[in-house]
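re: that chain from earlier
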Amino acid sequence: MLPIKSLADAAAELGRTFRGELLQPLDAGYEDARKVHNGLVDKRPALIARCRGVADVVEALELTRRLGLEGAIRGGGHNVAGRATIDGGVMIDLSPMKGIHVDAEARTAWAQGGVTWGELNRETQLHGLAVTGGVISSTGIAGLTLGGGVGWLMGKYGLALDNLRAVDLVTAGGKVLRASKHHEPELFWALRGGGGNFGVATGFEYQLHPVGPIITGGPIVHPIESSRALLEFFRDSTRSLPDEHTLFATLTHAPDGSGTEVAGLVTCHCGPLEDAERAMRPLKQFGVPILDAVGPIPYSQLNGMLDASYPKGALNYWKSSFLRELSDAAIDTMIASFARCPTTMGQLLLEHFHGAVTRVSATETAFPHRGEGYNFLVLAQWMQPADTGACIAWARETYEAMRPFFADGRYVNYLDDDEMGEPIAAAYGPNYRRLQQIKARYDPTNFFRMNQNIAPLA
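^ sequence. v structure.
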């Protein structure tokens, strides 16, 4: 780590032109600024550069390189794996960058890298428009989009990255680029799934679609004793969903704080309300639910309905993989594993892929996972540090118990902080070598390595 005096001098020099905020460990506001959403991550950067514009990003990168420090890039959202911060290096923080412009006539939106999905939806829904975004409104657009972009609208409109028109990027060398299908097309291909490996994404331009403001969706919750029947029903239902209909399943705990184990479906239909009512009828007629909150709802409200289940500061450890199929044995293993969950904030989640997201070839974007099927996710979440050992152990044990049912693919946005090497290759499959080649062109020294890292091809 650099001596404090030289770092302070360098920060003071940068401060003459820097429009944002530069924070060192003894500065007011540092403790709050260094914290990320996941309370399990507790790192102390030597400097936090809270950027207000692209020029700030360029200057912060230049300072980081000049001082020989490592850098981490923070957007506006969660970063469960903890890659957005760093011990002893520079956190380049884009969260103050909140600019949004919606062109309702062209059905496009441009947003800066610190914007969250809730903030973007608030602006686009003024015009009855939306793009596939995270299922939690406090998720940042940058990380979600660069790694994939699973969301309620993906069956109809594809992943968030499938709707990208352009990305504004600052390279490791401080060059400002705009990548699109017509400008820097190889870089644009890599940015659609390759994560934060190629530079700092300061702005995103999306294609929007007519959605809402009222759509149909919500949760249906059943007693835990109905788990097997509900997951079998979920499997059967997902075999014939229309593009407009997204359906996820979960083994979780009641949101009332009681700790009661429950089984549930969470759903969204973005088509006409009469079509949605017809599509939802089988879900509503199945079994005897504890709660049925599925109905007409503003899209922005649906996008935020699960936010309270993911509070800032909670300790999180996640593991995930795509499944070959949702077999009877996989269902039995899920149920048995969930019964051992040591935290009332833990859950097992199944995300179903179908429709538009599967009608893109595996090599058209860097994101290769285009087959219809399920992504399985273990979410261990807890509040007390004393529970850390038990909760992480449960997540790992559950993941290992489910391993016989896994496909080869991994979703890069769900890779946790202790997974490098082979999981990265699994996340990119047939696209990995091409990504390494593009990495070597745009970041040959691997400056951007505090991420789910793609090593440049030598």
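The chain has a mean pLDDT of 94.
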